Amino acid sequence: MGENNTPPVSPRDQGPNESDEEGIGTQNEDDDFEVIEVYEENEENEDEEDVADGEGREEGEGEMDEADVPDDAVITFKQHSGSVFCCSIEPKENKLVVSGGEDDKAFVWDITDGQVVFECGNHQDSVTSALFSHDGCYLATADMSGFIQVWKMATKSVVWTFETGDLNWLDWHPASHILFAGTVAGETWFWKIPSGDCKTLPGHGERNECGKILPDGRRIAVGYVDGSVKVFDLKTLAVLQHLSGGQMHTNAVSSIDCHRDNNLMVSGSLDSTAKLYNTQTGKLLCTLSCLGVGSSEEESSVEAVSFCPETSVSLVVTGTLSGKISFWDIPTQIERQSYDQAAGVVKLVWHPKHSHLLFSAGLDGVVRLIDSRSGTLVREYTGHTANILDIAISFDGYHLVTSSDDQTCRVFEVNVDH
C-alpha cells in the first residue's frame, strides 16, 4: 500500500480489445475516435468525484463511539481494511455498488445483501476513483499513483489498463464509452474504451484539480490549482475559454458544475467564493461570497457546487468546509435559502426523482436531506462513526450509498414518495 501517498482527512486539509454492445452512445472500436453529443432528453446526471482521506490520523481520532450512533443503514459493507474513498452505483439495474479504498482494493458488491460479486485487484496504491459507465457496461477503477483499469461487467475481466502520473479525478462521458482523467501534472487525458485510442488536453503547468463534461457532450470544463478554469472542445482539442486574470479565483478550484442549458458554469474554490460564467463567451457573470459569519477563508472554502437539475428553477447550491449550504437565485445572485449543518460538506447530490431535494454528505458522518425550497432539514441518515468521503444515489432514487473513514460503506433506503 502506498502509505506515504494517502489523501488527507477532510476535503481541503490538504488488455484485449472487445467490441462494444449496441446502445445509446456506444461506438465500434474501428470507428473514428469521435465524441458523441448529448442532448437534453438523453442526459443523465453523474456524480462528481471528490476524494478525501486520513493520512497521519491517530487511531480513533475523529471517530465516534459506534454504540452512540443510531444506525439507519439497511446494509453495512465491511470488506475494506482502511478508509473507503469512493463509491458508485450501477446506473441501469441499480443492483451493484463499487467501492474503493485505502487498502488498495476495489470491490463490486450487491446492494441488497452486501455480498461481494468480484474484487478488482492489481492496484498497488489507494483506490480513489471507481465508477460505472453511463450504461453499466464498463467499470473504471483508478488509484492515486495513476494506474487505471477498465473492467467489462459482463465478463468481470479487465479489458484495458493505462498508467498516467499521479491522478486527481476520473469521469466517464455521459453517453459514450470515453473515459477522462485529470492529473497532478495538469493534463487531461481521455480514451476510447476498450480500444484505448487516446487524446490529451494540455495543461499550463498547474495542477488539474477537477473536471466536468458539459451536458452537450462536446466540451469539458477543467479547474486548476491556480484558480483558473479552461473550457475545451473535445473534437478539436482547442481551448475555447481560459478564465484567468481578473476572472479567476485567488485559490485552487475545488469543484465545477455545468447547467443543462449548456450556457452556464459554476466553479467553487478554496478562496470561499463560487463564480458563475457564461460558457459560450467566457464572461464572468458574478462572484458569490460564501464566507460564513465569523469564519475564515479557509473554513469557508467551497467544497461542492451544483445546479438544480430542474431547468425551470434558476438555482445553484454551494457547500463549504464550515458546513454552510447556500441556495442562490441565479438571476439576482441573492442567497435564497441557507442551511448550516455544522460539519464540513463533502459532496452534494440531488434526488433523481424529486429535484427540490438535496443530499449533503458531512464530515460528521451524517447525510442530511434538505428541501431547497425552504432550506429546511427533511431527515438525517446516520450510522457512520467517522467522516463520510463519498456518496451516491441510485438512479431510481430508492437507495443511497456512502463510504467513510470508518472503513465501511452503508446502504440507506430512501423513501420520500409522499
Commentary on this structure:
With 418 residues, the protein is mainly beta. It is built from no helices and 32 strands. It has strands spanning 75-77, 84-89, 96-101, 106-110, 116-120, 127-132, 138-143, 147-152, 157-163, 167-172, 178-183, 188-192, 198-201, 208-213, 219-224, 229-233, 239-243, 253-258, 264-269, 273-278, 284-289, 302-307, 315-320, 324-329, 334-340, 345-350, 357-362, 367-371, 376-381, 388-393, 399-404, 409-413. Strands 1-32-31-30 form a four-stranded antiparallel sheet, with no helix packed on it. Strands 2-3-4-5 form a four-stranded antiparallel sheet, with no helix packed on it. 53% of the residues are buried. Residues 1-6, 8-31 and 39-61 have low confidence and may be disordered.
Summarize the structure.
With 418 residues, this protein is mostly beta strands.
List the helices and strands and how they pair.
Elements: E1 75-77, E2 84-89, E3 96-101, E4 106-110, E5 116-120, E6 127-132, E7 138-143, E8 147-152, E9 157-163, E10 167-172, E11 178-183, E12 188-192, E13 198-201, E14 208-213, E15 219-224, E16 229-233, E17 239-243, E18 253-258, E19 264-269, E20 273-278, E21 284-289, E22 302-307, E23 315-320, E24 324-329, E25 334-340, E26 345-350, E27 357-362, E28 367-371, E29 376-381, E30 388-393, E31 399-404, E32 409-413
Antiparallel strand pairs: 1-32, 2-3, 3-4, 4-5, 6-7, 7-8, 8-9, 10-11, 11-12, 12-13, 14-15, 15-16, 16-17, 18-19, 19-20, 20-21, 22-23, 23-24, 24-25, 26-27, 27-28, 28-29, 30-31, 31-32
